[in-house]
Amino acid sequence: MSYEALISRKNEIMKKSVGIDYSLYEKGLIAFDYERLLSDPGYTTAQIKTIQSDSGVGNTPLKELKNISRLARKFSLPGYGARIFIKDEALNDSGSFKARRASISCYHAKNMGYEGVIAATSGNYGAAVASQAAKYGLKCIIIQECFDSKGIGQPEIIEKARACEAYGAEVIQLSVGPELFYTFLKLLEETNYFNASLYTPFSVLGIETLGIELVEDSLRITGKTPDMVVITNAGGGNVTGTARGIQKATNKKIQIVGASVNLKGLHMASDHDFNKKSFTTGHTGFGIPFITNPDRSDVPRSAARPLRYLDRYVTVNQGQVFFVTEMLTILEGIERGPAGNTSLAAAFSLAQKMKEDQIVIVQETEYTGAGKHHQAQMDFARQNGIDIYFGDPRSEIPGKSIILPRKISDIFTEEIPLAAIKESFIRNAVKDTPEITQIDLNYLVEETNSDIEFVKNILIKYNTAWEG
Amino acid sequence: MVNKNAWVQIHKIILKPEERAQNLPEDTKKVPLEMWVKGYLLADACINDIVSIKTTTGRIETGVLIHENPAYMHTYGNFVPEILKIDQIVKSAFSNGEADE
Q: What ipTM does the predicted assembly reach?
Protein backbone atom coordinates (compact mmCIF):
# COMPACT_ATOMS: atom_id res chain seq x y z
CA MET A 1 0.00 0.00 0.00
CA SER A 2 1.34 3.45 -0.87
CA TYR A 3 2.44 5.90 1.78
CA GLU A 4 -0.25 8.45 0.89
CA ALA A 5 -3.08 5.87 0.73
CA LEU A 6 -2.33 4.61 4.21
CA ILE A 7 -1.84 8.08 5.72
CA SER A 8 -5.23 9.16 4.36
CA ARG A 9 -6.90 6.52 6.58
CA LYS A 10 -5.02 7.71 9.66
CA ASN A 11 -8.03 8.92 11.67
CA GLU A 12 -10.00 5.72 11.14
CA ILE A 13 -7.05 3.56 12.23
CA MET A 14 -6.40 5.77 15.26
CA LYS A 15 -10.00 5.68 16.44
CA LYS A 16 -9.91 1.89 16.54
CA SER A 17 -6.46 1.62 18.07
CA VAL A 18 -6.92 4.18 20.87
CA GLY A 19 -10.62 3.56 21.49
CA ILE A 20 -11.33 7.31 21.50
CA ASP A 21 -13.58 9.07 19.00
CA TYR A 22 -11.73 12.37 18.89
CA SER A 23 -14.43 13.97 16.72
CA LEU A 24 -16.68 14.12 19.82
CA TYR A 25 -14.40 16.75 21.34
CA GLU A 26 -14.20 19.16 18.40
CA LYS A 27 -15.75 22.60 18.97
CA GLY A 28 -15.95 25.82 16.95
CA LEU A 29 -13.69 25.75 13.88
CA ILE A 30 -10.30 25.08 15.46
CA ALA A 31 -11.12 24.41 19.13
CA PHE A 32 -11.68 21.22 21.09
CA ASP A 33 -12.72 20.38 24.65
CA TYR A 34 -9.38 19.56 26.25
CA GLU A 35 -10.57 19.01 29.81
CA ARG A 36 -13.35 16.67 28.71
CA LEU A 37 -10.88 14.66 26.60
CA LEU A 38 -8.83 14.10 29.75
CA SER A 39 -11.70 13.43 32.14
CA ASP A 40 -13.78 11.13 29.89
CA PRO A 41 -11.59 8.04 30.38
CA GLY A 42 -12.90 8.22 33.96
CA TYR A 43 -9.69 7.57 35.91
CA THR A 44 -9.56 9.35 39.28
CA THR A 45 -6.23 10.35 40.81
CA ALA A 46 -6.72 7.75 43.56
CA GLN A 47 -7.26 5.01 40.95
CA ILE A 48 -4.16 6.06 39.02
CA LYS A 49 -2.07 5.99 42.22
CA THR A 50 -3.28 2.48 42.97
CA ILE A 51 -2.69 1.20 39.44
CA GLN A 52 0.84 2.60 39.57
CA SER A 53 1.79 1.39 43.03
CA ASP A 54 0.51 -2.06 42.04
CA SER A 55 2.81 -2.09 39.02
CA GLY A 56 6.21 -0.90 40.25
CA VAL A 57 5.65 2.74 39.39
CA GLY A 58 5.76 5.95 41.41
CA ASN A 59 6.62 6.89 44.99
CA THR A 60 10.20 7.56 43.95
CA PRO A 61 12.41 9.38 46.45
CA LEU A 62 12.94 13.14 46.35
CA LYS A 63 16.62 13.69 47.17
CA GLU A 64 18.27 16.93 48.22
CA LEU A 65 21.44 17.52 46.19
CA LYS A 66 23.26 19.10 49.08
CA ASN A 67 26.71 19.23 47.50
CA ILE A 68 25.45 20.54 44.18
CA SER A 69 23.34 23.15 46.00
CA ARG A 70 26.43 24.19 48.00
CA LEU A 71 28.45 24.45 44.79
CA ALA A 72 25.76 26.59 43.10
CA ARG A 73 25.70 28.87 46.16
CA LYS A 74 29.42 29.58 45.75
CA PHE A 75 28.59 31.23 42.45
CA SER A 76 25.56 33.15 43.67
CA LEU A 77 25.28 36.58 45.28
CA PRO A 78 25.18 36.54 49.12
CA GLY A 79 21.83 35.16 50.29
CA TYR A 80 21.17 33.48 46.93
CA GLY A 81 21.43 29.89 45.68
CA ALA A 82 18.29 27.79 46.17
CA ARG A 83 18.16 24.28 47.60
CA ILE A 84 18.16 21.83 44.65
CA PHE A 85 16.20 18.57 44.94
CA ILE A 86 15.87 15.76 42.40
CA LYS A 87 13.03 13.29 41.98
CA ASP A 88 14.86 10.02 41.35
CA GLU A 89 12.54 8.68 38.69
CA ALA A 90 15.21 6.23 37.47
CA LEU A 91 13.98 4.01 40.31
CA ASN A 92 10.68 3.26 38.59
CA ASP A 93 10.52 -0.19 36.99
CA SER A 94 12.18 0.22 33.54
CA GLY A 95 14.26 3.16 34.77
CA SER A 96 12.48 6.41 33.96
CA PHE A 97 9.37 8.53 34.60
CA LYS A 98 7.99 7.10 31.35
CA ALA A 99 6.80 4.12 33.39
CA ARG A 100 4.08 6.44 34.73
CA ARG A 101 2.82 7.07 31.20
CA ALA A 102 3.05 3.43 30.16
CA SER A 103 1.32 2.11 33.28
CA ILE A 104 -2.06 3.70 32.59
CA SER A 105 -1.89 2.95 28.84
CA CYS A 106 -1.18 -0.73 29.45
CA TYR A 107 -3.75 -1.03 32.25
CA HIS A 108 -6.35 0.53 29.96
CA ALA A 109 -5.37 -1.68 26.99
CA LYS A 110 -5.71 -4.77 29.14
CA ASN A 111 -9.11 -3.67 30.48
CA MET A 112 -10.39 -2.89 27.00
CA GLY A 113 -9.45 -6.39 25.88
CA TYR A 114 -6.64 -5.54 23.48
CA GLU A 115 -4.22 -8.41 22.84
CA GLY A 116 -1.18 -6.17 22.70
CA VAL A 117 0.24 -2.65 22.62
CA ILE A 118 2.33 -0.73 20.08
CA ALA A 119 4.39 2.38 20.66
CA ALA A 120 6.53 4.37 18.26
CA THR A 121 9.44 5.64 20.32
CA SER A 122 13.23 5.69 20.32
CA GLY A 123 13.29 6.86 23.93
CA ASN A 124 12.80 5.46 27.42
CA TYR A 125 9.08 5.13 26.73
CA GLY A 126 9.75 1.94 24.73
CA ALA A 127 11.28 0.15 27.71
CA ALA A 128 8.47 1.52 29.90
CA VAL A 129 5.73 0.13 27.65
CA ALA A 130 7.57 -3.19 27.25
CA SER A 131 8.00 -3.50 31.02
CA GLN A 132 4.36 -2.70 31.80
CA ALA A 133 3.13 -4.94 28.97
CA ALA A 134 5.14 -7.79 30.52
CA LYS A 135 3.31 -7.28 33.84
CA TYR A 136 -0.13 -7.34 32.20
CA GLY A 137 0.65 -10.23 29.84
CA LEU A 138 0.18 -8.03 26.78
CA LYS A 139 2.09 -8.53 23.57
CA CYS A 140 4.24 -5.54 22.72
CA ILE A 141 5.81 -3.99 19.62
CA ILE A 142 8.16 -1.00 19.84
CA ILE A 143 9.07 0.88 16.66
CA GLN A 144 12.30 2.87 16.77
CA GLU A 145 14.09 5.26 14.47
CA CYS A 146 17.54 3.84 15.13
CA PHE A 147 20.04 3.71 12.27
CA ASP A 148 21.33 6.04 9.57
CA SER A 149 21.68 4.85 5.96
CA LYS A 150 25.16 3.47 6.75
CA GLY A 151 23.58 1.21 9.36
CA ILE A 152 25.18 3.13 12.24
CA GLY A 153 22.89 3.28 15.25
CA GLN A 154 22.72 5.79 18.09
CA PRO A 155 24.19 3.91 21.10
CA GLU A 156 21.46 5.27 23.36
CA ILE A 157 18.71 3.93 21.08
CA ILE A 158 20.42 0.55 20.65
CA GLU A 159 20.50 0.21 24.45
CA LYS A 160 16.78 0.96 24.59
CA ALA A 161 16.15 -1.73 21.96
CA ARG A 162 18.02 -4.18 24.19
CA ALA A 163 15.92 -3.16 27.20
CA CYS A 164 12.66 -3.58 25.23
CA GLU A 165 13.75 -7.03 24.04
CA ALA A 166 14.75 -7.95 27.58
CA TYR A 167 11.14 -7.26 28.62
CA GLY A 168 9.93 -9.51 25.81
CA ALA A 169 8.91 -6.92 23.23
CA GLU A 170 9.34 -7.17 19.48
CA VAL A 171 11.50 -4.25 18.38
CA ILE A 172 11.28 -2.90 14.86
CA GLN A 173 14.25 -0.72 14.05
CA LEU A 174 14.07 1.73 11.17
CA SER A 175 16.39 4.07 9.36
CA VAL A 176 15.86 7.84 9.58
CA GLY A 177 12.63 9.41 8.38
CA PRO A 178 9.14 10.49 9.36
CA GLU A 179 7.66 7.50 7.50
CA LEU A 180 8.12 5.61 10.74
CA PHE A 181 4.51 6.66 11.10
CA TYR A 182 3.66 4.62 7.97
CA THR A 183 5.13 1.46 9.52
CA PHE A 184 3.32 2.29 12.75
CA LEU A 185 -0.10 2.60 11.04
CA LYS A 186 0.49 -0.59 9.02
CA LEU A 187 1.25 -2.52 12.21
CA LEU A 188 -1.79 -1.12 14.03
CA GLU A 189 -3.97 -2.36 11.16
CA GLU A 190 -2.25 -5.73 10.96
CA THR A 191 -2.32 -6.52 14.70
CA ASN A 192 -5.34 -4.57 16.07
CA TYR A 193 -3.17 -3.76 19.11
CA PHE A 194 -3.71 -0.72 21.34
CA ASN A 195 -1.84 2.42 20.28
CA ALA A 196 0.10 3.25 23.46
CA SER A 197 0.82 6.71 22.10
CA LEU A 198 2.68 9.21 24.26
CA TYR A 199 -0.03 11.72 23.49
CA THR A 200 -3.25 10.04 24.68
CA PRO A 201 -5.10 11.14 27.83
CA PHE A 202 -3.89 7.92 29.54
CA SER A 203 -0.27 8.85 29.01
CA VAL A 204 -0.65 12.37 30.40
CA LEU A 205 -2.89 11.32 33.32
CA GLY A 206 -0.17 8.86 34.34
CA ILE A 207 2.32 11.72 34.86
CA GLU A 208 0.01 13.75 37.10
CA THR A 209 1.07 11.59 40.05
CA LEU A 210 4.64 12.83 39.57
CA GLY A 211 3.50 16.43 40.09
CA ILE A 212 1.39 15.45 43.08
CA GLU A 213 4.21 13.45 44.68
CA LEU A 214 6.83 16.14 44.33
CA VAL A 215 4.62 18.67 46.12
CA GLU A 216 3.85 16.15 48.88
CA ASP A 217 7.54 15.11 49.14
CA SER A 218 8.65 18.73 49.39
CA LEU A 219 6.10 19.49 52.11
CA ARG A 220 7.16 16.42 54.07
CA ILE A 221 10.91 17.05 53.80
CA THR A 222 11.10 20.85 53.96
CA GLY A 223 7.70 21.92 55.30
CA LYS A 224 7.20 24.03 52.17
CA THR A 225 5.97 23.72 48.61
CA PRO A 226 8.69 24.14 45.98
CA ASP A 227 9.17 27.55 44.38
CA MET A 228 10.19 26.20 40.99
CA VAL A 229 9.97 22.87 39.18
CA VAL A 230 12.24 22.31 36.18
CA ILE A 231 10.98 19.79 33.62
CA THR A 232 12.72 18.44 30.52
CA ASN A 233 10.54 19.20 27.50
CA ALA A 234 10.29 17.28 24.23
CA GLY A 235 6.80 16.22 23.11
CA GLY A 236 5.25 18.19 25.98
CA GLY A 237 3.68 15.38 28.03
CA ASN A 238 6.17 15.63 30.86
CA VAL A 239 5.49 19.35 31.39
CA THR A 240 1.73 18.94 30.94
CA GLY A 241 1.23 15.99 33.28
CA THR A 242 3.59 17.27 35.98
CA ALA A 243 2.06 20.76 35.99
CA ARG A 244 -1.48 19.34 36.12
CA GLY A 245 -0.49 17.18 39.07
CA ILE A 246 1.06 20.15 40.86
CA GLN A 247 -2.18 22.11 40.38
CA LYS A 248 -4.13 19.19 41.88
CA ALA A 249 -1.82 19.07 44.91
CA THR A 250 -1.63 22.76 45.82
CA ASN A 251 -3.17 26.16 45.14
CA LYS A 252 0.21 27.83 45.71
CA LYS A 253 1.83 29.32 42.63
CA ILE A 254 4.83 27.23 41.63
CA GLN A 255 6.93 28.36 38.71
CA ILE A 256 6.91 25.75 35.92
CA VAL A 257 10.07 25.84 33.81
CA GLY A 258 10.57 23.72 30.70
CA ALA A 259 14.15 22.86 29.68
CA SER A 260 15.43 21.42 26.40
CA VAL A 261 18.85 20.71 24.94
CA ASN A 262 19.61 23.21 22.21
CA LEU A 263 19.97 21.38 18.87
CA LYS A 264 19.36 24.42 16.69
CA GLY A 265 20.38 23.86 13.10
CA LEU A 266 20.12 20.07 13.06
CA HIS A 267 17.31 18.70 10.89
CA MET A 268 15.44 15.91 12.67
CA ALA A 269 14.55 14.11 9.42
CA SER A 270 18.07 14.32 7.99
CA ASP A 271 19.94 11.06 7.49
CA HIS A 272 23.24 12.95 7.74
CA ASP A 273 22.35 14.88 10.91
CA PHE A 274 20.92 11.85 12.73
CA ASN A 275 24.20 10.71 14.28
CA LYS A 276 25.55 14.23 14.72
CA LYS A 277 23.45 14.79 17.81
CA SER A 278 24.13 13.42 21.28
CA PHE A 279 20.58 13.65 22.57
CA THR A 280 17.78 11.67 20.98
CA THR A 281 15.05 13.36 23.01
CA GLY A 282 14.57 16.26 25.43
CA HIS A 283 15.85 18.58 22.74
CA THR A 284 14.57 21.62 20.83
CA GLY A 285 14.18 19.52 17.64
CA PHE A 286 11.07 18.04 19.28
CA GLY A 287 10.40 20.70 21.90
CA ILE A 288 9.80 23.66 19.59
CA PRO A 289 7.65 21.98 16.88
CA PHE A 290 5.50 20.16 19.44
CA ILE A 291 4.92 23.18 21.65
CA THR A 292 3.88 25.37 18.73
CA ASN A 293 1.81 22.63 17.06
CA PRO A 294 0.93 19.84 19.54
CA ASP A 295 -1.45 18.10 17.14
CA ARG A 296 1.41 17.06 14.84
CA SER A 297 1.63 13.94 17.05
CA ASP A 298 0.36 10.41 16.34
CA VAL A 299 -3.18 11.04 17.62
CA PRO A 300 -5.69 13.61 16.23
CA ARG A 301 -5.62 15.71 19.42
CA SER A 302 -2.60 15.54 21.67
CA ALA A 303 -3.23 15.51 25.42
CA ALA A 304 0.25 17.03 25.84
CA ARG A 305 -0.21 20.82 25.69
CA PRO A 306 2.76 22.38 27.53
CA LEU A 307 1.98 25.97 26.55
CA ARG A 308 -1.06 25.86 28.83
CA TYR A 309 1.23 25.40 31.84
CA LEU A 310 4.70 26.80 31.21
CA ASP A 311 5.90 29.95 32.95
CA ARG A 312 9.35 29.84 31.33
CA TYR A 313 11.15 27.81 28.69
CA VAL A 314 14.95 27.61 28.69
CA THR A 315 17.63 25.77 26.75
CA VAL A 316 20.99 24.35 27.76
CA ASN A 317 23.68 22.98 25.47
CA GLN A 318 24.90 19.39 25.09
CA GLY A 319 28.28 20.04 26.74
CA GLN A 320 26.61 21.44 29.85
CA VAL A 321 24.34 18.42 30.24
CA PHE A 322 27.32 16.03 30.01
CA PHE A 323 29.22 18.21 32.48
CA VAL A 324 26.36 18.26 34.99
CA THR A 325 25.79 14.50 34.56
CA GLU A 326 29.39 13.97 35.66
CA MET A 327 28.89 16.53 38.47
CA LEU A 328 25.93 14.51 39.77
CA THR A 329 28.07 11.37 39.71
CA ILE A 330 31.18 12.76 41.33
CA LEU A 331 29.62 15.14 43.91
CA GLU A 332 26.45 13.29 44.88
CA GLY A 333 27.37 9.69 44.09
CA ILE A 334 24.34 9.31 41.82
CA GLU A 335 25.14 7.94 38.36
CA ARG A 336 22.28 8.53 35.93
CA GLY A 337 21.70 8.85 32.18
CA PRO A 338 22.52 12.21 30.57
CA ALA A 339 19.20 12.92 28.79
CA GLY A 340 17.35 12.96 32.12
CA ASN A 341 19.79 15.54 33.44
CA THR A 342 18.79 18.26 30.98
CA SER A 343 16.57 19.82 33.64
CA LEU A 344 19.34 19.48 36.25
CA ALA A 345 21.73 21.48 34.04
CA ALA A 346 19.08 24.20 33.80
CA ALA A 347 18.23 24.08 37.51
CA PHE A 348 21.89 24.44 38.50
CA SER A 349 22.01 27.75 36.69
CA LEU A 350 18.50 28.95 37.66
CA ALA A 351 19.04 28.16 41.37
CA GLN A 352 21.83 30.73 41.49
CA LYS A 353 19.31 33.53 40.88
CA MET A 354 16.93 32.29 43.59
CA LYS A 355 17.11 33.04 47.32
CA GLU A 356 18.89 30.45 49.46
CA ASP A 357 15.75 29.47 51.38
CA GLN A 358 13.90 28.75 48.12
CA ILE A 359 13.41 25.28 46.68
CA VAL A 360 13.89 24.12 43.10
CA ILE A 361 12.94 20.60 42.10
CA VAL A 362 14.42 18.75 39.14
CA GLN A 363 11.60 16.34 38.43
CA GLU A 364 13.34 13.35 36.84
CA THR A 365 16.38 11.17 36.42
CA GLU A 366 16.77 8.21 34.04
CA TYR A 367 18.73 4.97 34.23
CA THR A 368 22.18 4.67 32.74
CA GLY A 369 24.15 1.81 31.20
CA ALA A 370 26.19 0.84 28.15
CA GLY A 371 25.30 3.15 25.27
CA LYS A 372 23.17 5.35 27.49
CA HIS A 373 25.95 7.06 29.40
CA HIS A 374 27.81 10.34 28.94
CA GLN A 375 31.05 8.40 28.36
CA ALA A 376 29.47 6.33 25.55
CA GLN A 377 27.71 9.30 24.01
CA MET A 378 30.70 11.64 24.04
CA ASP A 379 32.85 8.94 22.45
CA PHE A 380 30.18 8.31 19.82
CA ALA A 381 30.07 12.04 19.07
CA ARG A 382 33.86 12.08 18.71
CA GLN A 383 33.71 9.07 16.32
CA ASN A 384 31.22 11.07 14.25
CA GLY A 385 33.56 14.02 13.86
CA ILE A 386 32.16 16.25 16.60
CA ASP A 387 34.78 18.45 18.26
CA ILE A 388 34.71 18.04 22.04
CA TYR A 389 36.64 20.58 24.09
CA PHE A 390 36.51 22.92 27.08
CA GLY A 391 35.52 26.45 26.15
CA ASP A 392 32.67 28.92 26.18
CA PRO A 393 29.50 26.77 26.06
CA ARG A 394 27.64 29.65 24.40
CA SER A 395 29.62 29.08 21.22
CA GLU A 396 28.68 25.38 20.87
CA ILE A 397 27.36 24.56 17.39
CA PRO A 398 25.07 21.50 17.45
CA GLY A 399 26.35 18.91 14.99
CA LYS A 400 29.85 20.42 14.96
CA SER A 401 30.97 20.88 18.55
CA ILE A 402 30.27 19.88 22.12
CA ILE A 403 31.73 22.55 24.37
CA LEU A 404 32.25 21.61 28.01
CA PRO A 405 32.25 24.50 30.49
CA ARG A 406 35.83 25.59 31.42
CA LYS A 407 34.59 26.64 34.81
CA ILE A 408 31.44 26.32 36.88
CA SER A 409 30.41 29.90 36.19
CA ASP A 410 30.27 29.11 32.44
CA ILE A 411 27.09 27.08 32.99
CA PHE A 412 24.12 29.08 31.73
CA THR A 413 20.57 28.78 30.47
CA GLU A 414 19.14 30.64 27.52
CA GLU A 415 15.59 31.91 27.77
CA ILE A 416 13.22 31.22 24.88
CA PRO A 417 10.69 34.07 24.98
CA LEU A 418 7.29 32.45 25.54
CA ALA A 419 5.46 35.31 23.79
CA ALA A 420 7.13 34.31 20.51
CA ILE A 421 6.21 30.65 21.06
CA LYS A 422 2.60 31.64 21.78
CA GLU A 423 2.52 33.71 18.61
CA SER A 424 3.74 30.71 16.57
CA PHE A 425 1.12 28.52 18.23
CA ILE A 426 -1.70 30.90 17.25
CA ARG A 427 -0.34 31.34 13.74
CA ASN A 428 -0.29 27.54 13.26
CA ALA A 429 -3.77 27.13 14.75
CA VAL A 430 -5.48 29.66 12.46
CA LYS A 431 -3.45 29.18 9.30
CA ASP A 432 -6.33 27.63 7.32
CA THR A 433 -9.14 29.60 8.99
CA PRO A 434 -9.68 33.24 7.89
CA GLU A 435 -12.39 33.86 10.51
CA ILE A 436 -12.76 32.13 13.88
CA THR A 437 -15.66 31.95 16.32
CA GLN A 438 -15.95 33.21 19.90
CA ILE A 439 -15.41 29.63 21.10
CA ASP A 440 -12.15 29.48 19.14
CA LEU A 441 -11.02 32.80 20.55
CA ASN A 442 -11.52 31.60 24.13
CA TYR A 443 -9.79 28.34 23.23
CA LEU A 444 -6.70 30.20 21.98
CA VAL A 445 -6.57 32.15 25.25
CA GLU A 446 -6.61 28.87 27.22
CA GLU A 447 -4.12 27.13 24.95
CA THR A 448 -1.61 29.96 25.23
CA ASN A 449 -2.33 30.74 28.89
CA SER A 450 -2.63 34.39 27.88
CA ASP A 451 -5.44 36.95 27.63
CA ILE A 452 -7.93 38.02 25.01
CA GLU A 453 -6.03 41.18 24.03
CA PHE A 454 -2.83 39.21 23.45
CA VAL A 455 -4.64 36.74 21.18
CA LYS A 456 -6.53 39.46 19.27
CA ASN A 457 -3.32 41.36 18.53
CA ILE A 458 -1.76 38.26 17.02
CA LEU A 459 -4.91 37.45 15.01
CA ILE A 460 -4.77 40.96 13.51
CA LYS A 461 -1.12 40.45 12.61
CA TYR A 462 -2.02 37.26 10.71
CA ASN A 463 -5.15 38.69 9.04
CA THR A 464 -7.57 36.49 10.92
CA ALA A 465 -10.98 37.83 11.88
CA TRP A 466 -13.12 36.77 14.82
CA GLU A 467 -16.83 36.65 15.37
CA GLY A 468 -18.48 39.26 17.64
CA MET B 1 23.77 -22.70 6.97
CA VAL B 2 21.45 -21.34 9.63
CA ASN B 3 18.99 -23.85 11.03
CA LYS B 4 15.23 -23.57 11.22
CA ASN B 5 14.09 -22.07 14.58
CA ALA B 6 17.38 -20.21 15.09
CA TRP B 7 17.06 -16.67 16.55
CA VAL B 8 17.99 -14.31 13.72
CA GLN B 9 17.87 -10.73 12.50
CA ILE B 10 16.59 -9.75 9.05
CA HIS B 11 16.84 -6.57 7.01
CA LYS B 12 14.25 -5.22 4.62
CA ILE B 13 13.66 -2.17 2.44
CA ILE B 14 10.28 -0.65 3.40
CA LEU B 15 10.19 2.25 0.94
CA LYS B 16 12.48 2.79 -2.05
CA PRO B 17 13.83 6.34 -2.44
CA GLU B 18 11.15 7.15 -5.06
CA GLU B 19 8.36 5.89 -2.77
CA ARG B 20 9.33 8.04 0.21
CA ALA B 21 7.31 10.89 1.70
CA GLN B 22 7.38 14.37 0.22
CA ASN B 23 9.13 17.19 2.11
CA LEU B 24 12.13 15.12 3.20
CA PRO B 25 15.59 16.69 3.38
CA GLU B 26 17.60 15.96 0.20
CA ASP B 27 20.00 13.52 1.89
CA THR B 28 17.16 11.39 3.31
CA LYS B 29 15.23 11.42 0.01
CA LYS B 30 18.17 9.73 -1.75
CA VAL B 31 18.20 6.65 0.48
CA PRO B 32 15.56 3.95 1.13
CA LEU B 33 13.62 3.51 4.38
CA GLU B 34 15.10 0.36 5.91
CA MET B 35 13.93 -1.99 8.64
CA TRP B 36 15.66 -4.47 10.95
CA VAL B 37 13.73 -7.01 13.02
CA LYS B 38 14.45 -10.23 14.92
CA GLY B 39 12.63 -13.54 15.20
CA TYR B 40 12.76 -17.33 14.78
CA LEU B 41 13.83 -18.56 11.34
CA LEU B 42 11.01 -20.54 9.70
CA ALA B 43 13.22 -22.72 7.42
CA ASP B 44 16.91 -23.59 7.04
CA ALA B 45 18.70 -20.84 5.11
CA CYS B 46 22.04 -19.16 4.42
CA ILE B 47 23.12 -15.63 5.34
CA ASN B 48 21.93 -13.18 2.62
CA ASP B 49 18.99 -15.44 1.63
CA ILE B 50 15.50 -13.98 1.64
CA VAL B 51 13.79 -15.69 4.56
CA SER B 52 10.67 -15.59 6.71
CA ILE B 53 10.76 -15.29 10.49
CA LYS B 54 8.26 -15.43 13.32
CA THR B 55 8.70 -12.53 15.75
CA THR B 56 8.07 -12.66 19.52
CA THR B 57 4.53 -11.37 18.98
CA GLY B 58 3.90 -14.18 16.47
CA ARG B 59 3.98 -12.02 13.34
CA ILE B 60 5.59 -13.32 10.15
CA GLU B 61 8.12 -10.98 8.53
CA THR B 62 10.21 -11.49 5.39
CA GLY B 63 13.61 -10.03 4.59
CA VAL B 64 17.29 -10.71 4.01
CA LEU B 65 18.91 -12.88 6.68
CA ILE B 66 21.81 -10.91 8.16
CA HIS B 67 22.65 -12.38 11.59
CA GLU B 68 22.21 -15.57 13.57
CA ASN B 69 21.99 -14.95 17.34
CA PRO B 70 22.36 -11.18 16.90
CA ALA B 71 24.36 -9.76 19.81
CA TYR B 72 24.21 -6.49 21.70
CA MET B 73 27.57 -4.89 20.99
CA HIS B 74 27.01 -1.40 22.41
CA THR B 75 29.50 -0.36 25.07
CA TYR B 76 30.69 2.59 27.13
CA GLY B 77 32.88 3.56 24.16
CA ASN B 78 36.51 4.58 24.16
CA PHE B 79 37.66 6.36 27.27
CA VAL B 80 36.91 10.09 27.22
CA PRO B 81 39.64 11.77 29.32
CA GLU B 82 37.66 15.04 29.46
CA ILE B 83 35.49 13.36 32.10
CA LEU B 84 38.48 13.34 34.49
CA LYS B 85 39.03 17.03 33.81
CA ILE B 86 35.36 17.71 34.67
CA ASP B 87 35.96 15.93 38.00
CA GLN B 88 38.93 18.20 38.70
CA ILE B 89 37.01 21.37 37.84
CA VAL B 90 34.02 20.33 39.96
CA LYS B 91 36.00 19.13 42.99
CA SER B 92 38.36 22.06 43.02
CA ALA B 93 35.47 24.56 42.78
CA PHE B 94 33.61 22.66 45.51
CA SER B 95 36.58 22.81 47.91
CA ASN B 96 38.15 26.13 47.04
CA GLY B 97 35.71 28.10 44.91
CA GLU B 98 36.83 29.31 41.55
CA ALA B 99 39.44 31.90 40.71
CA ASP B 100 38.40 34.25 37.92
CA GLU B 101 40.26 33.30 34.80
A: 0.95
pLDDT at A177 over 90: yes
**pLDDT value at position A8?**
86
Distances (CA, A) of A117 to A16, A107, A137, A142, A237: 13, 11, 10, 9, 19
Selection from A164, A168, A169 nearest residue A122 by Cα:
A164
Q: How many domains does chain A have?
A: 3
How long, in residues, is chain A? 468
Same domain? A355 vs A382: yes
Q: Hey, are the CB atoms on B78 and A379 less than 8 Å from each other?
A: yes
| Domain carrying residue A366 | 46-95+203-415
Cβ separation of A169 and B72 shorter than 8 Å?
A: no
What average pLDDT score do residues A189-193 get?
96
Distance of CA A244 to the CA centre of its chain: 14
The pTM of the full predicted model, rounded to 2 decimals, is: 0.96
How far A326 CA lies from chain B's nearest CA (Å)? 7
The answer to whether the CB atoms of B75 and A370 lie below 8 A apart is yes
User: How far apart are alpha carbons A458 and A465 in whole angstroms?
Assistant: 11
Residues A410 and A427 placed together within one structural domain of the fold: no
Strand segments (E) across chain B: 7-15, 33-41, 50-54, 60-68
pLDDT digits (tens, 9 = 90+) for A331-345: 999 999 999 899 999
Asked whether residue A247 falls in the same domain as residue A349, the answer is yes
